[in-house]
Amino acid sequence: MRIIGADFAITCNDKQDIIENGAVAISNGKILEVDTFENLKSRYIECESLFYKNHVMLPALINSHIHFEFSKNETSFRYGNFGKWLDSVMESRGSVLKNSKNAILDSINMQKKNGVGIVGAVSSYDLDLEYLLDSKLKVIYFQEVLGSFDKDFDNQAIDISIRLDKVMQFANPLFQPALALHSPYSTNDKIARYVIDLALKHNLLLSTHFLESKEELEWLRDKSGYFKTFYDKYLGVSEHTPNFDIDSFTDLFKDIRTLFIHCLYADDELRQKILDNGGYIVSCPRSNILLNSTMGDCSIIATDGKSSNINVSLLDELRYALMVELSRGNDDIEGISRSLIDSVTCNPARALNIESGILESKRCADIAIFKLECKSRDNLLSSFILNAKYARKLLINGNHVKVS
């Protein structure tokens, strides 16, 4: 058992408590108690204790949607328009995926430097599996399924079943298998239902990209636009029609815990339907801007992968989102900052159904500590977002994870 403290503890609890000279008592990988450093020291006299002066502590950050496999991309894909981007992915993804080990490792290390302790890793080919298993991070591993045509169902079903069986053997407190359907434009009804049945059978989380672009909206709603020629151009199938409309796709996930990624072109009624069905909406601000010129909701934010971002720094994502919100005329910088910190701590923890994301008793001792010389809580939250550069310490289940 030990006590760890800092000048400020941002708890991210329901009361939004910030504790000056705050600390946590840790035992057996769990938070036993949260209070001031002095109070905890007086209650646990024999306990080892350490206080970080000029630092702030908060729950380890959660990057709930990231594609590590595309970490080698820098200039291979085109931005500014979703259609142009997807064209470039179809044309260049092979070279980006090839020999990507070092880039994947760099992206994993960036998570640790950012104080990220939990990642929702979406993997199309399992190229990142070995490195994530060895990362010491908590990993929700979303094995992704793509396939637009029913005729390919048998091979698709065999492939995902074999892949899932492989990763299920690695399930442990740091590694949780999950499943993902790429999107309604790249998935057929038979494989979608098969994957959902697998998720129900094994009690797994689901993830899907949904209404990320105007192009996808036009396809699902009007059967027109960019995707009208996409399947012929890249897959050799002419006169293809959508496998789903908007409602039939969302109805697949009713009462199944699912992360809906992006949702930039979902109206308020549809967004509420997703939430009422037990889903959660995750936004990737910089990716959204680069491909669709709009940021989206920021209740839960993530970096996405380098396939559609300049890096996978969650701290940079927070800074960017803060500045965009300020540019919209909202000058409540502390209020915005509080919401943004929640978007990478308690909110994604709730979506992922994990006991992290909050500094409170009985939660996992997943904690990040950053150097920050802030004298007042009045500007603490914005100061953290604007100035935090890298984590001084990262704890997962109470164990120190090397931040390199």
Q: How do the helices and strands line up, and which of them pair or pack?
A:
Blueprint: E1 2-10, E2 18-27, E3 30-36, H1 37-43, E4 48-59, E5 61-66, H2 82-97, H3 101-113, E6 116-123, H4 129-133, E7 138-145, H5 153-168, E8 175-181, H6 189-202, E9 206-210, H7 214-222, H8 227-235, H9 246-251, E10 258-262, H10 268-276, E11 280-282, H11 285-292, H12 314-327, H13 333-342, H14 346-352, E12 367-371, H15 380-387, E13 391-396, E14 399-400
Parallel strand pairs: 1-4, 5-6, 6-7, 7-8, 8-9, 9-10, 10-11
Antiparallel strand pairs: 1-2, 2-3, 4-12, 12-13, 13-14
What does this structure look like?
With 404 residues, this protein is α/β, with parallel strands linked by helices. The protein is globular. The strands form 2 sheets. It has a 7-stranded mixed β-sheet. The protein has a 7-stranded parallel β-sheet with strand order 5-6-7-8-9-10-11, sandwiched between helices. The chain has 15 helices and 14 strands. α5 (153-168) packs parallel to α6 and α13 packs across α15.
Kindly report the average pLDDT value.
97
Helix content: 25-40%
Q: What gyration radius follows from the Cα positions, in whole Å?
A: 21 Å
Number of helices: 15
The end-to-end distance, rounded to whole angstroms, is 26 Å
Strand order in the sheet with the most strands:
3-2-1-4-12-13-14
- What is the N-to-C succession of helices and strands? EEEHEEHHEHEHEHEHHHEHEHHHHEHEE
How much strand?
15-25%
Structural class computed from helices and strand pairing: alpha/beta
